[in-house]
Design a protein that fits this description.
This protein is of the alpha+beta class. The chain has 2 domains: 24-148, Beta Polymerase, domain 2; 149-210, no CATH class. The chain is 40% helix and 12% strand. It has a 5-stranded mixed sheet. The chain has a two-stranded antiparallel ribbon with strand order 6-7. Helix 4 packs antiparallel against helix 5, helix 5 (150-160) runs antiparallel to helix 6 and helix 5 crosses helix 7 (181-192). The longest helix is centred in the first third of the chain and has 14 residues, at 27-40.
């Protein structure tokens, strides 16, 4: 019709399927389930992953979505954890990075017990054991669970190597004001090797951290 513009025409809906609810995740049931399993199996533990990040990041705007609760556990504890899990209603599966996943859908439970001992993805069990040791030595807890220090979380994120994990590392570096940069460097050097020190320095620079070292260039 003459004089009718695109703005005047009704537009058909671009999505015809019924809208799905936005994803939400309450970590408490999964954390409590994990704590029960770890207590019954007498396993050492530390909270890691994004729920641990929530603990250290004061601003809830920095709390990115996650779909599970992650625990660092010793590799030697996996058999006893599995034994207890098989006495529950949980669906249990192996994690390719090392460890096991437990899920009870009707209760909203999604819990990972990670030992990170995979030969394919790299054996980071020494780093995870050190995170457990450090968590046990401090008073920071979520739902009675020792929380891994932010320095260890940064090292774990760098080791994971994905873009998402690197963004998480940068967020921790930028937002956790009492993060010990030298301790983080020592962790990366000791458990991940000097090859990842450059990635840590790049993350420090991208986070605008005052302790970041200058990027190396020819002639500098």
């Amino acid at each position: 019709m003459p004089g009718v513009t695109m703005e005047d025409r009704p537009l058909a809906a671009r999505r015809t399927a019924k809208p799905r609810p936005l994803p939400t995740f309450d970590p408490v049931p999964s954390a409590q389930f994990g704590l029960e399993i770890l207590d019954r199996s007498k396993s050492r533990r530390a909270l890691i992953g994004r729920v641990a990040m929530w603990y250290w990041l004061d601003d809830e705007a920095d709390h990115e979505y996650t779909k599970d609760v992650d625990f660092a556990v010793p590799q030697v504890s996996i058999p006893s954890i599995l034994e207890v899990l098989h006495q529950t209603d949980a669906e249990v599966s192996q994690l390719t990075i090392g460890g096991v996943n437990a899920r009870i859908s009707k209760q909203g439970v999604r819990t990972d017990f990670i030992d990170r001992s995979s030969e394919e993805w790299g054996n980071l069990q020494p780093l995870y054991l050190d995170a457990i040791r450090a968590a046990e030595a401090q008073d920071d807890q979520f739902e009675r669970i020792p929380v891994a220090p932010p320095e260890h979380l940064v090292a774990m994120k760098l080791a994971a190597g994905t873009e998402k994990d690197e963004r998480d590392a940068i967020r921790l570096i930028a937002k956790v004001k009492d993060l010990d940069v030298e301790a983080t460097r020592d962790l990366v050097r000791k458990f991940l090797g000097p090859g990842l020190l450059g990635r840590l320095e790049e993350c420090l620079r991208r986070a605008g951290h005052p302790r970041a070292r200058r990027a190396y260039s020819l002639g500098s």
